[in-house]
Amino acid sequence: MTTTAIVIGAGITGLSAALWLQRAGVAVTLIDRIDPGASEQASYGNAGLLSRSAVIPSSYPGLLFKAPFLLFNRDQPLYLKWRHLPRFLPWLVPFLRNGHRAKVSEISTALAALTHDSVEQHRALAADGAAASYIKSGDYAYYYRTKADYRADAQGLALRAKAGFEAVELDRKALKRRDPALSDAYQFAALFRDHGWITSPGKYSAALAKTFREIGGVFVKSTVQDVADGRVSLLNGETLFADKIVLAGGAWSGELARKLGQIPKLEAERGYHIHLKGASYLPPSPLMVSDAKFVATPMEDGLRCAGIVEFGGLNAPPSDAPIALLRKRIRQVYPDLTWQSEQVWMGFRPSTPDSLPHLGPLRDAPNVICAFGGQHIGMTIGPKLGRLVADMVAGRRINLDLAPYEANRFS
Ligand SMILES: Cc1cc2nc3c(=O)[nH]c(=O)nc-3n(C[C@H](O)[C@H](O)[C@H](O)COP(=O)(O)OP(=O)(O)OC[C@H]3O[C@@H](n4cnc5c(N)ncnc54)[C@H](O)[C@@H]3O)c2cc1C
Questions:
Q1: Is residue 51 in some structural domain?
Q2: Is residue 345 located within the same domain as residue 358?
Q3: What is the pTM of this model?
């Protein structure tokens, strides 16, 4: 008899799980309240970077002492909506605890296992359809104001080097050759080879969904209200049954997981982008502006600048200050840039206190498989998470230690 599965959530993680399950011969129903690729998804508005070298956890040694400076300095990309503090604290405490040296090294190894082959994972996922045309390969650069700033990043550079990512150093002359429109404020760069990016994350997701339907997958546009082991209840009163249920609802997964006895410790880390359509200039590949902590990515129709961390929960409206800061920072990087129109966006990173996703079955509902918590690198690792889910359902041997991502670890 054919195995059946319901995948909740059609962001990059759910789409990847749905496609790989379908390819494994499972009959899949994919459910989302919005269309795949719609702007409410984190998978729509991200910087599109496939960051193979993203092996640095968000919590690191010294952050506790740096946090007040970051929070109260208007030029720093960290914001907190103070009303959110009581709900945020149970996440913040373990988050800060994970910032000690030994733990950071351990998490970094677990991150590398998910990120190292991400460009290949995206190419394999998109192989059968139009989505492949949105994947690009190239370098990823970190821009610094000075060489001293680069050296001050020693901890991150050491973690990347340990994972096999050595920086190619660019002095001002080499940097200017690479990126002629760059302001003189940036004097140094570190280049990491063999990365990738998506030139239109929204269209990419929509194209993956089209492939999923073409190979027999069923998409249901509805809100999941309740979930149990093998059963899903929709807002319209309908109940669907399946052998396996994959919970891939991004930042919204926590509510459903809690109904199943899990304490997911999931925070909606709010991020913003300004997409400069018809930009007069595009850098050769994505870059991270280290002091401003945003990524600028050349995309299909312009330059997308995305970053900022704001803790404020899922329901508060977007804030103005992060966008104003992003706008000011873009000018500091490319002073002469012009563009025809712009789009501003806010979305939710599904983030855990240890920067690792929840992956695998729930203790109290073993037919429900979690696949959420991609935080800052969810676009990068989505295809791998999806493939691992399909391997679990198909009972294939998995050549990876899954313990660090265990779905019940905070419960
Ligand atoms: C500003 C910003 C920049 C980023 N840049 C990058 C980057 O460059 N590279 C990178 O790798 N990552 C990046 N990320 C992170 C990345 O975008 C996310 O981690 C990733 O997209 C999460 O994917 P997802 O599928 O888990 O969630 P989502 O894309 O948010 O999808 C979740 C889906 O589940 C659906 N859903 C949830 N609950 C229900 C329900 N009850 N019923 C029906 N449907 C439901 C939602 O409607 C949604 O469509 C960035 C994030 C932000 C905010």
A1: no
A2: no
A3: 0.97
Strand segments, DSSP code E, in 9-115 are 27-32, 49-50, 78-80
Q: Are residues 147 and 247 in the same domain?
A: no
Q: How far is the CA of 379 from the centre of ligand 1 (A)?
A: 8
- Ligand 1 closest atom vs CA 372: 26
Structure tokens at 401: 């230690």
CA 132–ligand 1 middle distance (angstroms): 20
Q: Are both 194 and 232 inside the same structural domain?
A: no
Instruction: Indicate whether 206 and 307 sit together in one domain.
Output: no
**Alpha carbon distance 140, 150 (integer Å):** 15
Tens digit of pLDDT at every position of the chain (411 positions): 899 999 999 999 999 999 999 999 999 999 999 999 999 999 999 999 999 999 999 998 888 888 888 888 888 899 999 999 999 999 999 999 999 999 999 999 999 999 999 999 999 999 978 999 999 999 999 999 999 999 999 999 999 999 999 999 999 999 999 999 999 999 999 999 999 999 999 999 999 999 999 999 999 999 999 999 999 999 999 999 999 999 999 999 999 999 999 888 999 999 999 999 999 999 999 999 999 999 999 999 999 999 999 999 999 999 999 999 999 999 999 999 999 999 999 999 999 999 999 999 999 999 999 999 999 999 999 999 999 999 999 999 999 999 999 999 998
- Examine the fold and report which residue of 316, 331, 351 is the final residue of a domain before the chain moves on: 351
The arrangement of strands across the sheet holding 224-228 comes to 224-228, 231-234, 239-241
Does residue 123 sit within a domain?
A: no
**Residue 8 maps to which CATH number?**
3.50.50.60
Pocket probe for ligand 1: among 7, 29, 31, 33, the residue whose CB has the most ligand atoms within 8 Å is 33
Residue whose CA is at the smallest distance from ligand 1 atom 22: 378
Residues 6+ apart with CB under 8 A from 191: 139, 140, 141, 167, 168, 169, 170
CA of 374 to the centre of ligand 1 (A): 8
Residues 366 and 333 in one domain: no
Is 79 found in the same domain as 142? yes
Which residue range(s) make up the domain with 159? 56-114+134-198+267-351
Query: Residues lining ligand 1, judged by CB closer than 6 Å?
Result: 8-14, 31-34, 40-43, 45-49, 51, 223-224, 248-252, 256, 271-273, 295, 306, 347, 349-350, 372, 374-380, 382
CA dist 137 and 114 (Å) reads 18
Domain assignment of residue 124, yes or no: no
- Tokens encoding 168: 């190619």
CA of 215 to the centre of ligand 1 (A): 24
Q: How many domains does the chain have?
A: 2
Report the Cα 104 to chain-centroid distance in Å. Answer: 19
Q: Hey, whose CA ends up nearest to atom 31 of ligand 1?
A: 11
